[in-house]
Amino acid sequence: MLEGTTKAVREYVETVFRRGREPMEPIGFTPNFADQPSRHKIYPGVSRFPLPAGTDGTLGPAKRALLGPPADAGDPLWTMESLAALLRLSYGVLDRRLRITWNQDSDVRVTYPGALWGRATASGGGMYPLEIYWVAGRGGPLSPGVYHYSTAHHAFERLLTGDLTDEVRAACGNGGEVDDSDGFLLVSVRFWKNSFKYNSFCYHVVTQDAGALLGCWELIARGLGRRLERVLWFDDERLNRLIGTDTYEESMLAVVPLPFTRTGGTVTAPGPAPAPGHGTLIDRPSFERSAVTLTFEQVEEVHRAVLEDRRPRPDRTTARDLVPLPRPGSAGTPLPAPLEERLGRDLGGVLRSRRTSFGSFVGSRPLGLDELATVLAGAASARHYASDVTPTRTGLTGLYVLAHRVAGLPSGTYRYDPDGHRLQTVQERPLADFLQRNYYLSNYNLDQVGAVLAISARWESVLRAYGSRGYRVVNAEVGAVAQNAYVAAGATGVGCGAVLGFDNISIDEAVGLDGTDERTFLFVLLGHERADRADFDYRLV
After folding, report:
1. CA-to-CA dists, residue 325 to 320, 322, 475, 515, angstroms
2. Residue 367 domain-assigned?
3. What gap in Å lies between CA 263 and CA 180, rounded to an integer?
4. What are the DSSP E strand ranges found in 221-307?
5. Which DSSP string corresponds to 54-105?
6. Among 316, 388, 470, CA closest to 172
7. Measured between alpha carbons, how far is 220 from 533 in angstroms, rounded to an integer?
8. Domain count, the chain
């Protein structure tokens, strides 16, 4: 049975990696943007509780969050003000995006129905398909209950009254931060909010989106001096029943304990899990803008495979055998120290200004080697986080650099060694033609890019060790690394854009991964932007 689930996940991921050569089903699919879902999930007729602005205070210098370690357990408890900052500066609406870019939607975005609202967390295609729920216990600032974070209102929508924290603990398996917390943030994905555009590719994108959100939360928590632990191994369907969703329409991806008071590890013994098909606790319909919603067979198959793989949570130390390995026999080139003086900006300001470069790169000004080194160090720090499945300082991902226009660095491919802060040479070669030929979208001129970062993982080893759920675990870290790259680039004054439009197989070969179990999952473009950008300042905060 378990072999069947991993086989289904392996086959799905392989179609993702090969989609540049063999399109994924359904071939010829065209999104119906006129009937797209709302970018904000709304529950009509519920009580809303406005949150503090979340943008009034400071989070300290970006370098503390990007280059410092996670906070220790027992650090300051959460307050309503710090929770509001966590939500607003990650998934809350911050501005309206009206800049003219190489994306072919500038004429649509100027109309209100087609408006694109900027947020601090990156999201594939700007779809923002994740939903956030707060299960509040007795120690929080609001009555115990289940609340939905309305991104449209920056407010909590109360869905249910009563302390349901024991239900979350039961779904996660008691222990550690889960036992010591009186509240939890739940992160789910509403598949149609992404699949209406990306169809079968959806599952790959949304699981990385979840990682980007968790990575952004980790940065904000470090800025606030607080600790966050992400729980990635839980009973999905028990939590889905808790919030009243159909598992194949909206499903949990992560749980984050959020203590307002310490329970001291004293919790009530939970009841047994409801039987499959048991009624949900919350029966409140949300607004659906689309007249027609579709499902996609490959998305449902890979999601089902993850849910049916019910092996026990692996020991955290398992991850130590899954770390990408350094290249043998390569001393490498030492990199300059990170530009800490540029990382002195307040983290909150950096997050509020985060955006994607979309065709704005200009090759006349090469990327500085010290700038590249700063982004690499900041991105790699996303591998250090508290989790139920990995040790704090053991990452599952690697970083490769395809250097095109980097001052003082020959054009070619390199592996980044975060422990030694150095680049190990894979191959020196011209890359301009190679990069453009293997990028199958039209929103960037790759000849103008300074460098491409390729985020990798030892995919087959992860799948063997963690089973089907390992796909979500590794993609969560991939997304967090990309989010850190955005923040580090923004603080350094470098343009940035995460993309999935490369031919993975060609990139794997270029960085020397063919014949290994390591694969590239996501790519980040870096470089300087042109000065004469056409934009309109539409900041909301």
Report:
1. 11, 9, 18, 14
2. yes
3. 5
4. 229-230, 250-257
5. S-SS---BHHHHHHSPPPPTT-PPP-HHHHHHHHHTTTS--EE-----SSTT
6. 388
7. 29
8. 1
Q: Could you give phi then psi for residue 209, rounded to 5 degrees?
A: -55, -45
Q: What is the pLDDT of residues 485-496, one digit of tens each?
A: 999 999 999 999
DSSP secondary structure string for all residues of 3-58: HHHHHHHHHHHHHHHTTTTSPPSSTT----GGGPPPSS---TT--EEEPP-S-SS-
Chain-centre distance of CA 344, in angstroms? Answer: 24
518 within a domain of the structure (yes/no): yes
CATH code of 454's domain: 3.40.109.10
Q: Using the predicted structure, report yes or no on whether residue 272 has a pLDDT greater than 70.
A: no
Q: Residue count of the chain, please give it.
A: 541
- The answer to whether residues 343 and 62 touch, using CB atoms and an 8 Å cutoff, is yes
Q: With beta carbons less than 8 A apart as the criterion, state whether 47 and 157 touch.
A: yes
Structure tokens at 24: 């994924």
The residues pairing with 529 across neighbouring beta strands, listed in sequence order, are 361
Q: What residue numbers bound the domain in which 517 lies?
A: 318-527
Q: Residues with Cβ < 8 Å from 362, sequence gap 6 or more? A: 448, 527, 528, 529, 530
Distances in Å between the Cα of 396 and the Cα atoms of 16, 224, 302, 325, 419 are 20, 26, 21, 10, 14
**Residue 448 falls inside a structural domain:** yes
Could you tell me if residue 146 is inside a domain? no
| Average confidence score pLDDT of the chain | 92
One-letter identity of residue 167: E
Query: Does residue 26 have a cis peptide bond before it, meaning omega lies within 30 degrees of 0?
Result: yes
Q: Name the CA dihedral angle for 494, 500, 504, 507, rounded to a multiple of 10 degrees.
A: -10
Phi, psi of 231 (to 5 degrees): -105, 120
**Average confidence (pLDDT) over 178-207:** 96
Alpha helices in 98-139 (DSSP H): 106-109
